[in-house]
Amino acid sequence: MVKALRYRLVSRRFGAGRFSGGLWLMGQALLLSAVLSLIAPMARAAADEEQFEQLMQAMLFGEVVDVLCEEGQGMAEDFVAAGYGVPKPVWEDMLGRLYDPDVMSRAFHDAMADSLEGADLAPMIAFYHSDLGKRIARLELDTRKTLSGEAAQLAAGEAWAELEPGSKRAELIEDYVQTNELVEMNVVGAMNSDIAYYQGLWSAGFESDQGVSDSEILNEIWASEPEVRADVSEWVYGFSTMAYDSLTDEEFAEYIAFSRTEAGQRLNHALFASFDAVYEQLSRGLGAGTARLMQSFEGEQL
Which segments constitute the DUF2059 domain (predicted)? Predict the structure, then answer.
């Protein structure tokens, strides 16, 4: 029952795992903007507002959010395939409200400003204004778009598997993943999103059947951690293999060196904190919306 219900928003975040999945539903219900404002206080100047905007633009953040919204809005087919008895146009309307580009852009902007408050943004801007930084930002974004398809994800995973384990490129990818804690931090984010999804279901009046308690559901979610870790690892290593393939080993090493600096580490943690916060709220809203639609359309029992 639990596995059939869950729609995991796994680690579809910015870069190699940092992309990463609002109680919006009916116009008269809670508004997405109000929900997302809970996790994003009014944007604080992260050192300097002008610098912050320069950093967001250099990292192509606006285009990143557009990709995230397209992915979220495209999940209607998955919900229809789950057989909950809710028409596809209704799912599309729900997801369109939840993954609204303007609201999500503001939420990510505010969350990042909050996470980077007090940080020295100058070295971050300098890196992403460099020729290498510009290329990397574009490579990560383009690869993220490419990996929206299942076939492309499979190809990326195969590309990683085909690398010689002791090769320079394999060592660089491993170093990059470990330096940025991409697997561990994405696993935590994915599990928290699962929990938030159920919290949304419960908040909207969902009651588990077959005598399954809330604690048992949570235990089952955490019991799936090895499976989540395997999925995340496959995605992260496949992404890294594909995204940085056109970089020379020296350029890739330079990117990793930046990731090790104080600025690189601060930016990495800010990205995870921001995306995880927003996606927990999105997952909670998705759960609440699913429960309400099921109740409205008298779909099959969750």
Answer: 108-155
